[in-house]
Amino acid sequence: MSKENSAKQSNHTKRSTRKSSKAKKALQVLLSLVCLVLILALILALTCTAVSFHNAGKAEIKPAENLLKGAAVSVENGEPAGDGFTGEANTAYTAEFSAPTTLNTIILREDGANCRGFSIEAMVDGAFQQIYAQDDKIGEYRYCAFPEIETTALRITVQGADAPFTIKDIEAFAAERKAAEDFRVTTYITAATAYNLEGLRTQAGSFDVITDVILFGGVRFAADGTLYYPDMKGENGPIDGETAFRTALQNLREVIGDRDVRIHCNFIGPDAPEGTAPENAANAKCDQHNLAFGENRDTLIRELLTFTESYDFDGIYFDYEYPRRFKDWFTFSRFLSALKNEIDGRYQLGAAMPVWKNLWEIFLSRSIDTAEIMGYDSFDAQDGHHASFAQTASGILGDYLSLGFRADKMDLGMPFYARPTDAGEYWYSYSGDAAQLGKYQNVAEGPLEGSPETQGEDTPDRYYNGWQMVYDKTAYAIDMGLGGVMVWHYACDLPYEDELSLFGAMAQAIEDRTVQE
Q1: Whole-number Å distance between alpha carbons of 203 and 385
Q2: HSE-up (13 A, CA, CB side) for residue 225
Q3: Please, are residues 439 and 451 in contact by the beta-carbon 8 Å criterion?
Q4: Is the CB of residue 250 less than 8 Å from the CB of residue 201?
Q5: Range scoring the smallest mean pLDDT among 43-47, 151-155, 203-207
Q6: What pTM did the predictor assign?
Q7: CA dist 74 to 81, 93, 121, 282, Å?
Q8: What domains can you pick out in the chain, each with its CATH number?
Q9: How large is the angle between the packed helices 326-343 and 297-311, nearest 10 degrees?
């Protein structure tokens, strides 16, 4: 071949190579664009799903039959209106059945939230008897549960109202009993609580209904993936962290005894580095978590599995409530997925889920076995109630279901404490106000005697989930097919034997709503 032909062939080869390279680059760009479009489409679809579900309503029970259909309705001090009634304070709605009727649930839907306190009575043997009451509002969705009763008439009375109200819909039905075998009653117990053996014993009866304990606050992980025991505050100075943790776990197992209760350990992550400016602290805290969950993931997983095996725990739990950016959620979800693979069915994997939700939380649903839904610390704008039914039961569950979380993976969380209605940073134990609340109140007023957090007459009004509300939310969780309920936290309750015990309310709802062995 001549030098001229050889040069021509060489140039042709170079041009072909350049064309091939350009074609490959163009294909790579095209594929990247296609992937990006698909990701954006997926995000848009998920967002639309969530918005659509939320706009469509709450996570509501749909009874097969409304027993009020065909009942003879009358309203005192008000007017019937569609499937409900209108009125002001002291308006009474009465529905008479054509034959004795058995029921255990009434659902009320209000247009707005003007009602303030209501009761339900049932006609039994010719006389009305109270079967339900709340000092609380009704709002857009209120699930009223009670033991099964046979009646010939119902009367719903609204005792107080801020303004004329409209109850737009009322449903009455008998919820079917469900199997209780796998229904969880999970409680957080702090290491400080478990360290006090005598205090732990005063509420030992609660373990008759508790199925799962999450031991909280005794061990932490650092940004480098290693675990450590923070020292515990004692009356006479700090207590060595490892000694305190081992004592707390030993006490817990002693009090549980031979009851079938699973014990899991919660692992808290690193704070922002010391000296971080307040305005940067949240992101800095996430950055520390990302180091542990990301580049130091293998170390953290190895330490978690060794620790869990050595203490014979049943599960590994996280309380990481504040991922802020996409990369925080993505790193956390990849870590959970890797940890899940290494666990290989040996332990339960769970995480606390806040009431403030994020689209990226959908990533977490694939890896965790249980999601502890934190149905509290979410103040409504109108009344400052931090754990109302519509907002932190049917509302939050509707949002999580729309994100793809399975109902049987979720535990509906309830507070055994109050927050002030002015949203102040106080947390009041239920046991201190239980006597004032009785079974049917959620709002406590006036001074809280013996409380170090309060200052006599300056104590603000405070909102609890009282006995009836806890009963309602437990019954609702069962009827919704949830995996269980969750409590923050154990030490706030009365002794289990007290008639106002909130664990007792849970036990009663479970007995009334499930098939007992």
Answers
A1: 27
A2: 18
A3: no
A4: no
A5: 43-47
A6: 0.88
A7: 11, 6, 15, 56
A8: 72-176 (2.60.120.260), 179-515 (3.20.20.80)
A9: 50
